[in-house]
Amino acid sequence: MLGFSMMAMETQPLPGPIPVPQGPDPLIGQRVGDYVIEAPLAIGGMGVVYRAIHPLIGRNVAVKVLRPDLVNDPEQSGRFLKEAQALSTIKHQGIIDIITFGTLPDGRQFMVTEFLEGEPLDKVLQRDGRLNERQALGFVDDILAALSAAHRMGVVHRDLKPSNVFVSVQSNGERHVKLLDFGLAKQQPVEFAGKDASLDGARASLMIGTPEYLAPEQACGLQATPQTDLYCLGVMLFEMLAGRLPFLGSTVVELMRQHVMEKPPRLGALVPVSPQVDGLLESLLQKKPELRPASADATRELVRRAMPEATAAARVTAVEFPVVSAPAAREPESLPLAPVVRSRSRWPYVVPVLAAAGVGLVFALGPGAAPPR
Fold it and tell me: Strand pairing of 47-53 and 175-179?
């Protein structure tokens, strides 16, 4: 049975190219709620994002519209609605603000969000290669503040990666981190956020996430918890400091196996870092969720102990970024997974785990086993 599960994963086709609409876009110039659509900004796996403006007060917003080919797909429509619900639940400056939600005459759902100026973190890393400790820990501290707000409301992001972290530039020049793309977010009862994560939870029907940043429990098709987000953040911190991912693989299966089975390299053996940062990464990248920090707030305490000159002003102004207009509801492009040193897979892979057949994705661990400590 385990061999069948592996074969199913190895033959699972990678996502194909996103269909690009042909001809003039009928939404350009149309009114959506109080806003007039001006121009398309991005197209991704679930929606098309447009720049829109309020015709009276001149306010720019981002309007994310479900792709036309997905209008009759109940799973994608449900995911679109869940993203809007998650965003409306969390009130925090580190989470993009949703203004309204509705349905177009053709049946497609749309959401209106704030319009951001700045650039995504993956662009920062592509340009700079790697960051110093103060820069990286500053970003991590801001991300943790947003995650703490989400987790308190029972929302687990489940797809943290640099392309879903946006460095927003305010009109006064201040820069703030915003978390994007809550389309894969899972909302649990609020009291769930205070409980310890455990691999003894209910087995999920789907493995959801991005292979390069996947937590072991996600790879095994198990329940995602706040500690799942902390593992993904640990992968991001490693990448920010080392200029490469902790695990490198040429296939989805190999990456998932490494997340489940292999110990990540010690960061201090690759680049000069403080012992505190090495210890923080070791804690975040534990295979078992219960061995990671208890919460985002607890992790922030570890970050601040490791952060030199930990003042908000020093963290925010540590890096200078070009100002690039981008939508708050940014949709990543679909790219195939490839063997690169710092991979930029931007498609959230959704791979059947065959749980209904009792197979489960546990790789070489054997049936019913959990990732090693």
Answer: unpaired
CA distance 178 to 165: 6
Residues 62-121: tens digit of each pLDDT:
999 998 888 888 888 888 888 888 888 888 889 888 899 999 998 899 999 999 888 899
Tell me which of 142, 159, 181, 229 is the catalytic residue: 159
CA proximity to 266, closest of 288, 245, 281: 281
The alpha helices in 181-318, defined as continuous H runs, are 216-219, 226-242, 252-261, 275-284, 296-306, 312-316
> So what's the pLDDT on residue 77?
85
What are the start-end ranges of the H helices in 182-273?
Answer: 216-219, 226-242, 252-261
Pairing of strands 186-187, 175-179: unpaired
Is the entire prediction scored with pTM above 0.70? yes
Q: Which two tokens stand for residue 305?
A: 């102990």
pLDDT winner (highest mean) among 124-133, 196-205, 302-311: 124-133
At residue 93, the pLDDT reads 87
Q: How far is CA 160 from CA 19, 139, 164, 167, 278, in A?
A: 25, 13, 6, 14, 21
Residue in the structure block whose two tokens are 């994002």: 49
25 is catalytic: no
Residue 188 has pLDDT above 80, yes or no: no
Residues 6 or more apart from 125 whose CB is under 8 A from it? Answer: 131, 162, 239, 240, 243, 342
CB under 8 Å to 16, separation ≥6 — which residues? 334
Residue 198 scores a pLDDT above 50: no
Give the pLDDT mean for 34-43: 90
| C-alpha separations of 97 from 87, 89, 113, 169, 182 in Å | 7, 10, 6, 15, 12
Contact (Cβ atoms closer than 8 angstroms) between residue 175 and residue 118: yes
The C-alpha atoms of residue 328 and residue 115 are separated, in whole angstroms, by: 5
Instruction: Give me the mean pLDDT over the 244-272 stretch.
Output: 92
